[in-house]
Amino acid sequence: MKNFLIVALFLALVVPATAGATVLSDNLGAGQSGTEIVTSTRWVTASFATDASSQSLSSVVILMDMTSAGTALASIYTNAGSGVGAPGSLIGNLTSPAAYTTSMGVNTFTASGISLAANTAYWVVLAANSGSFDWAWTSDNTGSGVGPFQHTWGYSDDSGATWNTYALSPQQMAGERRRRTCAGNPSALWPGSRRAGGHQEKVQEVTAVRQT
Predict the structure, then answer these.
(1) pLDDT (tens digit, 0 to 9) for every residue of the chain, 212 residues total?
(2) What is the residue range of 92's domain?
(3) Is 148 within the bounds of a domain?
(4) What total number of domains does the chain contain?
(5) How far from each other are the two terminal CA atoms of the chain, in whole angstroms?
(6) 2 falls within a domain
(7) What is the 3-class SS of 110-146, one letter each residue?
(8) Among candidates 54, 51, 47, which has minimal Cα distance to 27?
(9) Is residue 159 a part of any domain in this protein?
(10) Own/partner pairs, 88-91, CB within 8 angstroms, 24+ separation
(11) Parallel/antiparallel/unpaired status of strands 164-167 and 12-17
(12) Whole-model pTM?
């Protein structure tokens, strides 16, 4: 049976509506399968999309932990290229939480002044200004929210200069060693060579406010 490696960026995107925030994308309820390492040079990303309404981003909630003391930076990028795409131009940076969890947990990054167009894909990029972090991923390819749930993720080993992005599919991954740990064995490395399926970072919860 094929292995679907989905780093569903445990991320929730929220858009505040008249009666409260609207969730664009959410897979926080999925079971955790492992983690992706985030450092100052190794950035990890996951995409999300809006529905037929323009939005004002409210917050992004990521299932992650701090593995070495430092500060994380979450940013929103446009989508560049065709097919799976990749992070393009920086739209804005989010405000980090006052403190990060040191065991796997939800961490909320808040947004201000970030407008999202209707029917458009975007990328959440997580990097470390200092220290290091783990971002959880799941083998569950389902999610909720008003936007079409995305199954795309990626990583950069050169601080965003170039990206390797993937979509959830039965095709095999590129034959390269990836620093991915397996739940229950944090020190283990997935061989990454010809792993089947897509790996979707857990963009846990993304919320936004509808613009009128």
Answers:
(1) 222 223 334 455 555 543 456 888 888 887 788 889 999 999 999 888 888 988 889 899 999 999 999 999 999 999 998 888 999 999 999 999 999 999 999 899 998 889 999 999 999 999 999 999 999 887 777 777 788 877 788 899 999 999 998 875 311 121 122 233 334 333 333 323 223 334 445 545 666 555 54
(2) 12-210
(3) yes
(4) 1
(5) 48
(6) no
(7) ECCCCEECCCCEEEEEEEEEEEEEEEEECCCCCCECC
(8) 47
(9) yes
(10) 88/123, 91/122
(11) unpaired
(12) 0.78
Tell me whether residue 61 is in a domain. yes
Those residues whose C-beta lies under 8 Å from the C-beta of residue 146, and which sit 6 or more positions away, are 15, 22, 23, 24, 51
Count of other CB atoms within 10 angstroms of residue 120: 15
Residue keyed to tokens 């990303």: 45
